[in-house]
Amino acid sequence: MKIDNLTPDAAILQEFGNRLARHRKQRGFSQTSLAEEAGLGVATLRRIEAGEGSQMESWIKLLKALRMTSSIDQFLPETVASPMVQARAESSPRKRRAASGKRWGDEV
After folding, report:
1. For the chain, what are the domain ranges?
2. Is the distance from CB of 73 to CB of 30 less than 8 angstroms?
3. CA distances for 37 relative to 19, 45, 99, 102, angstroms
4. Which fold is adopted by the domain 9-77?
5. 55-70 mean pLDDT
6. Residues 45, 53: Cα–Cα separation, whole Å
7. How confident is the model at residue 68 (pLDDT cuts 50, 70, 90)?
């Protein structure tokens, strides 16, 4: 299933659960063995695979148990600021000169 910005949240959770179950099976884990490896309860894993809501910490534990933490970089890449943005952030703010009281055209 292709996921995009119009995909409902429930459908995304269901697809995540389906994908997790496929990866688990491809790696030869039962629900019980993966839950044990990840330090989670079997009921928690079943809920996740069923597309029910879960905590991010549970997903991290499952990805570690499946040796898939590198997929986090694909899912949410690290951002790197451009050199110009970094230079602007590190420079001190520009200060305006105090008004001298003179106006344009007052020179006589």
Report:
1. 9-77
2. no
3. 18, 11, 69, 76
4. 434 Repressor (Amino-terminal Domain) (1.10.260)
5. 93
6. 11
7. very high
